[in-house]
Amino acid sequence: MGYSIGEVAKKTGLTTHTLRYYEKEGLLPFVRKSGSGLRVFSDNDLGWLAMIECLKDTGMPLKGIKQYIDWFSAGDATLSQRLEMFKNHKAKVQEQIKQYQNNLKKIDFKIKLYEKAVELGNLDQAIQDPAIEELRQKIYK
Amino acid sequence: MGYSIGEVAKKTGLTTHTLRYYEKEGLLPFVRKSGSGLRVFSDNDLGWLAMIECLKDTGMPLKGIKQYIDWFSAGDATLSQRLEMFKNHKAKVQEQIKQYQNNLKKIDFKIKLYEKAVELGNLDQAIQDPAIEELRQKIYK
DNA sequence: TCTTGACTTAGAGTTAACTCTAAAATTTAT
DNA sequence: ATAAATTTTAGAGTTAACTCTAAGTCAAGA
């Protein structure tokens, strides 16, 4: 019914150090302690860790995640703040995805360019290549 | 024909401090200096900054970017390393985008959940809601 | 010319997010 | 019962990427 910090580390891929650090930062206020002081993680705590991972991996700083957890702990009076936070974060993530996709085009161009350059053994000649030039126009129009 | 560090800062949104820091880290080896020691950026340097921004914004550490610049400076003998680098980075960026899109689904679910919770004034009731529960199943199947 | 603002360097300081250490206590395996 | 592994705390150390300071030099406008 409960997991040790080591078990949770294995499950999540985080280290035990990082889990304790998260707790210290107020990100895991629901983790229980056994009589002798060992942390006992519940499935609910694993759910919180998954949420933390989701927000962290999409670029939210730990402070922002803590704010959410604090709002959660404050109860239903903060429902609208939490909704706002998720809406704002969604917009940021969508913006991020767009930027990634745009940058991916530039990286793709570089790959085409360097494939040609490797073929010719010469970067300058590859840059001169009409097909490469046409691609360049498309991306940096 | 040339831009001062302040002009480049305005153009790129970076600070002059950051531009000098990048230079110190070996990311801008082509920037010239005037007779009296002032940096003079060329359009080519702005192109390098755009490339740096592209790689940085897609998660490449400055050390990785420096490696690319060092390879570039070494000439055509390193063409294949540069091609490899871009291919590897492309794969990472694609992986990132996938993860972002997946996390976006989770965030979307939270938005739906909190919209319902705000409507009801109660999170627990929103969690009980059949439509919400169905959505949850879809995402955390 | 004077002054104001931009630029120079070297180097110190900051922030976020870990990452590690040490010494002691607890738990698990034999 | 004992050895080995895991966990505890407090606190120090690390890394990346800035960010700022100080003291001096340079440049443009009145």
Structure overview:
The structure is a homodimer of 141-residue chains. Chain A is mostly helical and 141 residues long. Chain A has 2 domains: 74 residues, Multidrug-efflux Transporter Regulator, Chain: A, Domain 2, CATH 1.10.1660; 64 residues. Chain A contains 7 helices and 2 strands, in the order ααββααααα. In chain A, strands 1-2 form a two-stranded antiparallel ribbon. In chain A, β1 and β2 form a beta hairpin. In chain A, α5 runs antiparallel to α7. The first copy, chain A, starts with a helix and ends with a helix. The mean pLDDT of chain A is 97. At the A-B interface, α3 and α5 of A face α3 and α5 of B. Chain A binds a DNA duplex (30 and 30 nucleotides) through α2.
Helix content of chain A: over 70%
Secondary structural class of chain A: mainly alpha
CATH topology of the largest domain in chain A: Multidrug-efflux Transporter Regulator, Chain: A, Domain 2
Radius of gyration of chain A: 24 Å
Distinctive features:
homodimer; 141 residues; mainly alpha; 3% strand; elongated; DNA-binding
In short:
The structure is a homodimer of 141-residue chains. The first copy, chain A, has 141 residues and is mainly alpha-helical. Chain A has helices at 5-12, 16-24, 43-57, 62-74, 79-120, 123-128, 130-139, and strands at residues 32-33, 39-40.
Helix and strand layout, with pairings?
Two copies of one chain form a homodimer.
Chain A (H helix, E strand, L loop, with lengths): L4 H8 L3 H9 L7 E2 L5 E2 L2 H15 L4 H13 L4 H42 L2 H6 L1 H10 L2
Antiparallel strand pairs in A: 1-2
Helix pairs in contact in A: 5-7
The first copy, chain A, binds a DNA duplex (30 and 30 nucleotides) through α2.
